[in-house]
Amino acid sequence: MSDKAILLVEDTASDIGLTQRALRKHGIGNPLVIAEDGQEALDYLFCTGAHQDRDIKDTPMLILLDLKLPRIDGFEVLRQIRADRRTRPLPVVILSASGEKHDVAAGYDLGTNSYIRKPIDFYQFAEIVKQLGLYWLVTNEPPPVV
Amino acid sequence: MTEQVILLVEDNPSDIGLTRRAFKKSAIGNELVVAEDGQEALDYLFGEGAHTGRDVTNTPMLVLLDLKLPRVDGLEVLRRIRADPRTRRIPVVILTSSSEEHDLAAGYDLGTNSYIRKPVDFQQFADVIKQLGMYWLVINEAPPRN
I need a labelling partner for A37 at 20 to 30 A (CA). Which of A8, B25, B123, B143 fits? Predict the structure, then answer.
């Protein structure tokens, strides 16, 4: 397993904590970078603002993206990821409490790799984080760095 | 949800057999439809040729796509899936023995949801099939049909 980062774009403190615990519990050691709103996620990805000294080629191995976010929402973050050739192939998994049909449809139309509904129960949530961690960090072949 | 099929696009009989066995072993109950070349896959998806009259709104839940195929190759099948509004949201997993970086890059550029290298060993292959079945048929929220 590589030590490339997982970028978690999430503003709810309890969901951040749950994700951190679930990844650690299952031995997924990749560093977890947290962006608490859409603008911070874009700054991280495109090395602007507080992240202007970061190397843009050091792309995350996986982006876990909430939809309802302060400042810039998850759909707009996804749109910008897919619009830039440096970030276009990055695996994005929408992890959202919303099961609304139009949200799921919009996520796929904007090119999410996968859409997962956050379970409310902690154990189910931990199990899902484990499964998606194994799938995207071990089984899936990540895109080559552009 | 009605039982949606899994479309396996694969020309190698031993890989078709292995996939069938691995699905059975993992208790994945969805019907497996096999297309042995790219043209047959397109005919199935778009209700043409031998599949004229098939209800094309009954889309597969998942497409497992080999790359090296007779007649029409896997990358072209993927391009056509993403170019048509009736099929563009269908989750596609490239399952190939190719580890060429340009295949990997082209797969993501054309919008594959995931790219998996076929393990040579049967047990590992069965584990990968089990994991991807679990991920795409259980954990992932399927795109709404148009």
Answer: B143
